[in-house]
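Pair request: fold both.
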Amino acid sequence: MSDSPIRPPAGASTDAQHHALLEVAEAIAQHRDLGELFHELADRLHRVVEFDYLTVTLHDAARNVMRLHILEAEGPRGIHPGAEFPVGETPSGWVWETQQPFILDDIGEETRFPALLQILRENGVKSACSVPLTTAQRRLGVLSFGRLTPHRHTENEIAFLQQVARQVAVAVDNALNFERAQAYQRQLAHERDRLRVLLEVNNAVVSKLDLHALLNAISASLRRVIHHEYTSLALYEPEMNQMRMLALDFPQGKGLIREEMLVPLEGSMSGKAFRNRQSLVLDRAAMDEFISPTSRLLRDEGVRSVVCTPLITHDRVLGTISLASLRDAAFQQGDVDLLVQVAGQVAIAVENALAFQEIGELKNKLAQEKLYLEDEIRSEMNFDEIVGESPALRSVLKHVETVAPTDSTVLIQGETGTGKELIARAIHNLSPRREHTFVKVNCAAIPAGLLESELFGHERGAFTGAIAQRLGRFELANGGTIFLDEVGDIPLELQPKLLRVLQEQEFERLGSTHTVRVDIRLVAATNRDLSEMVAARTFRSDLYYRLRVFPILVPPLRERQEDIPALVRYFVQKYARRMNRAVETIPAETLDVLVHYAWPGNIRELENLIERAVIVSPGPVLRVPLGEFKVPTELSADILPLQAAEREHIVRALQASNWVLAGPRGAAARLGMKRTTLQSKMLKLGVARSK
């Protein structure tokens, strides 16, 4: 009851009633919540209607009962909001059914509905009036006014209350519709969140093969719609007939439960869900029925609710996914249904992960077998396509094995045709970069004006003919190795840019201001004496020292004579197989001549000779045109044939250079050796310019 309700004289004026109806309409327009609406209506109706309590009773069609929704002021004790009464046992039910007002002027004169009337008498209610709440579309319920004193209701008063009830019915209908709309909106939002969870789980399934990462992503998504503190994934291991907990997400746990724990099928929650192929929902009392160690540990962790769902794919049960909460009754049927859908997707992910793991194991096994077979078929020094066992070659390959695992720059020096590119490839193949690109650039074969574009690339319009952007060799070699053959032929004006790449691993394309960063390893090669070029100021000293971090000198073929027979046989087999020839025999005298020849063109010259010999050999015997070799047959006792050939080779180079030793066109450069080395050999072999 209000603290000081306004009680106008009986028979309030028509103007006052009309004004009250306007206020009722105003209150209806301002409120959607039933509680707030009736609190406002009660205050305003007190001005024109005398009452001590005001109630709204609505009909529940699903259960066919009358439910008390609103109780304004001090209503009868023993009747509270939410109370339900059968339709036929209360005045409200009678009003709802007949759509007629129920008038109770004096409770002592009424004999119907004895149970409810007894409650009213015990609370001092003496009179009441109930009118139907009905809109044009449906019957909603009843609006009731009660007094603690007897009161004879006039027709005018009843008509006014019916007018009020008709307006209130509109408000109640609007409020109920609003509540239903809000409930439907909440349901849609809930369904949207669940669908979003399924989408996130699907994305995790297709993007994550690691089961730990997959479970963490799924657990984070589920926590937005299902309250839980614990998530676990257990997979069945047939060989042990147990389940292994492979992944666990329990940030609030005490650490009693850990990954890799074995879960027995008997006496465990996961085991029962696995065997029955059905979800299991347990409260604390039901958890006590399971006696496995993991079940006991769950209880010790303070878990009070568990839902466990099997992972089923292609009619095969892989394991279980479980959620647990520290709260009682944390999981409803909708949560279980969602987890079943999630489990179906997780089962696919687990199956893929297991298949991927199996493929990975097979791949590792094949890789190990491949390495073993490669070790079997490679030479003793484990280098492909490098033939020979001479001490000079072994020394070179030892240097290769030493420097290959590093990222250091290597400078390979040697005469033309000695196999510098094979050494460079061996360095790459033995390095951590072997899975990436090996890019070769012959600096002597590219015109000087185009070399910068070839190495560093260019932008569209950088020069005439640059109709599109082009990536340079350094960008193509990113992550791998770039081999600059004939590095001594790089123009002097381009050398600073090359030096910057070596030091900073960055450069700009031709015609661009954008800096490109790369991760490359440089291997350079030359048949020229770079130190003499530095002295002649045709090669930058800083670049020379930056290239010469780890120099490797490849010996000429004349210094590894013992490798020539093996090389001859290798090339004979190579070209005979390519040309479908059956060359089976190499005459001993042929090998002897080839071994003692000076080979100014080194291995390349030897290979070309053998290719030509295979072409002209119609039968099984290799025919080599020995007449082309000027091998001395009569030599003094103190001079070996090799020395004679080397002396003749040096004399020819001196004559071609007009006896100029140093410089880019000098005899030393032509022979691929240092000037001091040439002078030493001339002194040793007695070579001097005739007067």
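--- second member of the pair ---
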Amino acid sequence: MSVTANPANRRSRCNLVLSLGLAGALAATAGCGSGMDQIDRRLAKVLGESSGRTGLAVDPRIQPAQAVPARSGSLYETSPATNNPAAAELAYTELDRGQPGTPAVVQGLNERLRNYGLAAGGIGAENVLTLSLLDSLRLAQRQGREYVSAEEDYIIGAISLLAERHRWGPRLFADSSVSVGGDGDEGRFDNALNVVNTLRATHRLPYGGEAEARWVWNATEQLRSSVSGQYQQASSLVLDTSLPLLRGAGMVAREDIIQAERDLVYAARDFEAFRRSYFVSIAQDYFRLLQTVNELQNRLVQLGNLEVFVQQEHTLKEAGRRTDFQVNEARDRLVSARSSLASTREQFTLQLDRFKIRLGIPVQQPLRLVGAAIQIPEPSTTIEDATISALAYRLDLQNRRDRYADSQRGVLAARNQLLPDLDLSGEVRIPTDPGVSEGGLAIDPDEASWEAGLLLSLPLDRRIERLQLRQSLLRLQQSQRDLDEFVDTVIVDARQSVRAIDLARFRLELAESQVQINDRRLEQQKIDADRVDTRDRLDAEARMLDAKNARDQALTDLRIAILTYLDSIGQLRVSPEGVIDPLPGMTIQVEDRPIDFEKLLSVDQLTAGEGWGMDESMPEAPEGE
């Protein structure tokens, strides 16, 4: 049925339709962006499913999305400002320490270095953060920068999967177009305004091809003519599909979604493998810090003994039983010990600052460590058992194996591209009545039309595809070699981790024996102090220090070796709280023991022997404080 209206009304109607079409397109676009909350809920669901399938102990945390940066001119500067003043614009103030070589200079430097140590230990500071081993492990997996970045890598993989899944689901589009054209006839132009609104839904078919349903609304108005029928409007419903039968058909068509699903599994494994290696790394840093604390203690004990020995040598010199050479040799060793103590304190300060950075703690934050008596049982294992476990449980090895399968699938996909194109297509169109100028939405099934077709394209030019197939075959060979090499590397790591435990225990036993030997040696020399040669006594002090440091290092190496062994064979489990999850039959004991940092770091390097000695408030060296 035809509807006739005056030109003004028709023009208003056309403008209204145009406005509605554009508004609908904008609304549809805005409706798709429903905010980050909905995306985060979908992410949480996908991550939970992925973590459950791969047996992860914990899901990554989804942090609230940050606001989009405000548009600023500085963001688009092609030449950002550089703050690099000339030398003449800078200032350098020379420090006047006094006359070099005088006691005042040495004492001043000693005071500055001692203050550095006090600051590192949080002595005299406010709001000191006390941190034990368990606190460090928990804090690392809550705010450590490396850990947060690993979480985000996992989340990015989940976002990629969500995007790919959306491509395989129904997708809605709203398109609006406006065009103006004219046909000339002897200098007179018939101008027309054409408005087309298209609402369409597309869906990728499971094994190749795509189906689409769309509603097309078209309105045309003659802008110059005023005769009846200048405004025309029609719509149609169109259903069409295209389906490949050879090239691009079958499982090859699902390659993108298959790879995206597998990539999320890889990301889950990588995240869990990172959690384990990160746990070992943080524990190692903590153990090394305690080892340095032990070394500080050992050096202070040696320094006190050397100061007492120097006084004894002076006394023997006054009695005519020592020469100036012997006394100066003892003084020289005392000065070296003071220098080594200052270096060890600086080493501890630097280690502590770097540890803060790894835990995401501001470097300016005063921090005091808590010592720990740690008992980690050694595993009863063999190289063969460790190798079997590593080959079965290592998550990174499982990823390598599955990526090799990806390469195999890539060859199949490349070979499929050599096939001819044979595509089946079809379309069904149901328009409005063509005899009505303003059809509206009243589509007429009697006017329906359909079309089906088959397109064959022979592979006359497939050189690029053959080259791509050759590339995929080479990549498959590379992937095979990489997998073989990685398997060998895993085997070597597992074998070495077993040997490392035995080596660390062997060195610890020898170091304990050396400590006992040198302790008895020193006691005997102290009894016979007036008959013992100066160099022999100094050598005994040095050997005692080396033995204690070797014992502490061996103990630290043993603890790290056990954790590394568990990680290298794929049997380390880290709880959601960030601490080790003991396996059946494994008993781990961690007992906090306070460290008297005030005594350890406030002792003057120049007067360390005055009143210094081991007491009940200081931790024992073998326990790792």
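Observation on the second member. The CA atoms of residues 518 and 544 lie 5 Å apart.
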